[in-house]
Each structure stands twice: as structure tokens, then as C-alpha cells.
Specification:
single chain, 249 residues, alpha+beta, 8-stranded antiparallel barrel, 4 helices
Length: 249
């Protein structure tokens, strides 16, 4: 009788629990197996959560190492004071450019910061048929880049920068009808102002749109005498182009 009473009390307690849960115990495994599940991958891939992940990684400002390769079209003007038999000429040229850049970005406050780095590149330009000046392909030696950065969001960034380089022209020719041809190899100082926008397609990789305005001048050597390098040359040009930027996170 004692054991019978304990069994009855146990069954009553179990029935009380079942009544509270509203589910028979033997159906719990079936309910668990049929319960809806949410994929962690699906959660991660939703646009809102993806943007939130970018926010956590970028933290308001894209810092440190950046690499860019860009290229495009240019149009410029040579101002020739003297080169061989040429005197006081203004000659237009046009062509293409390519540029490589490394910059290190540091935050000032919030979305604002600055960048320091180096750039190099090359240009291919031609003047009109019959023009007295024939420029060669040039090589832009590595120089210094400094600028300001504003991160509009983790996906969009605006930049403004100045770079200073030396640009080498091997075989710049002056062809004046009735005069001997003059060819010189010179290095010009270049000052470049750039404005750019970066549009990030992934958390690391961006598409860049950029424009440049440059001023160059030739500093003739001392005691050049009547040598061809005793020339007076300036150049103005504008670049427009696009390329890719990689942010090393």
C-alpha cells in the first residue's frame, strides 16, 4: 500500500506538469524535430546585417594601408620659352596616363582624417601633326603624397590630395622647319592636385573616380651655356580617370 500511494502521488505530479506544459511528454522529440530553425548564414547575408558588419570593422574611418592603381585620359599644354630653335610657343598635347599609389590613412576625429604616402606612374602623349614639339613617353618617379580624407560611410569616401614628383622625358624633340632638330632628355618638377571618390564594392575593394590638375616646370642646370638643356619649359595638364583601390584590413 505504501508503494501504491507513492506511485499514485507520482502520477498526479506528472499529470500536473503535463497540464502546465500542455504537451504530452512523448511528443516532445517530435516537436523539437519539427521546430523551425533560422540559418546563421541567412542572418549574416541580409543587407542590414552586412552593413552592420562593415560598421564594426571600419569603425567610422578606414585606417592604415591603401593601394591604388588608376589610369585615364589627359589633356595638356606646353609653354615653350626656348628649346633649340623654338621660341615662345604654346603647344597642346593629349594622351593617356597610369598611376600607382600607396597611402597610410590616420584618423583625426570622426569620419575625418589625413593620408601620407607615395605615388609613381607614366604618361603617353602626342602633339598634333606638324607641331614643332614632339614629347616622348614619360616616367614619373616616386614622390610624396599628402591629403585629407572624409568617410561618408563605410562604402563611400572622398579624398583631396597633393603630390610632388619628378617626371623624366627622354628625347623631347623640337622640330622647326628649316632648322636643325634638337633633342634633349630632361627632368621636370611636377605638382599635382587630386580629387577622388572611392566606392567600395566589398569591404576591402573599391572603384575609384579621380581627377588631377598638374603644373610642371623645368629647372635648367647652372652654366648650361648654349647647350640644348638651356631651355625654358612649363607644362599644364588635366587628368581624368578611374581605377581600383585595395584597403588592407
Amino acid at each position: 500500500m505504501l508503494w501504491t500511494g507513492k506511485i499514485v502521488k507520482g502520477l498526479v505530479a506528472l499529470g500536473f506538469i503535463v497540464a502546465i506544459l500542455g504537451v504530452a511528454p512523448w511528443s516532445w522529440p517530435v516537436l523539437a524535430a519539427n521546430a523551425p530553425t533560422v540559418s546563421p548564414v541567412a542572418i549574416e547575408e541580409t543587407p542590414g546585417r552586412e552593413f552592420s558588419r562593415w560598421e564594426r570593422v571600419v569603425r567610422g574611418f578606414r585606417r592604415e594601408h591603401h593601394f591604388a592603381v588608376t589610369g585615364g585620359y589627359l589633356k595638356g599644354t606646353w609653354q615653350v620659352g626656348n628649346l633649340g630653335a623654338m621660341r615662345d610657343r604654346s603647344i597642346a598635347d593629349s594622351g593617356f596616363w597610369t598611376r600607382g599609389e600607396y597611402t597610410y590613412h590616420l584618423q583625426i576625429f570622426g569620419p575625418f582624417g589625413y593620408m601620407l604616402g607615395s605615388s609613381t606612374g607614366a604618361t603617353y602623349t602626342r602633339t598634333a601633326d606638324g607641331a614643332e614639339l614632339k614629347p616622348p613617353t614619360s616616367l614619373i618617379y616616386p614622390g610624396v603624397v599628402a591629403g585629407l580624407v572624409y568617410n561618408l560611410s563605410p562604402r563611400i569616401r572622398a579624398l583631396g590630395a597633393v603630390s610632388v614628383n619628378l617626371e623624366r622625358f627622354d628625347g623631347l624633340r623640337a622640330v622647326v622647319p628649316g632648322e636643325p632638330e634638337t633633342a634633349v632628355s630632361i627632368t621636370m618638377e611636377s605638382y599635382d592636385g587630386m580629387a577622388a571618390v572611392d566606392l567600395f564594392a566589398t569591404i576591402n575593394l573599391a572603384f575609384r573616380l579621380e581627377g588631377h590638375e598638374r603644373y610642371q616646370f623645368y629647372r635648367r642646370p647652372r652654366n648650361a651655356g648654349d647647350k640644348p638643356v638651356n631651355a625654358g619649359l612649363e607644362r599644364f595638364d588635366r587628368w581624368y580617370g578611374a581605377g581600383l583601390v585595395y584597403h588592407m584590413l
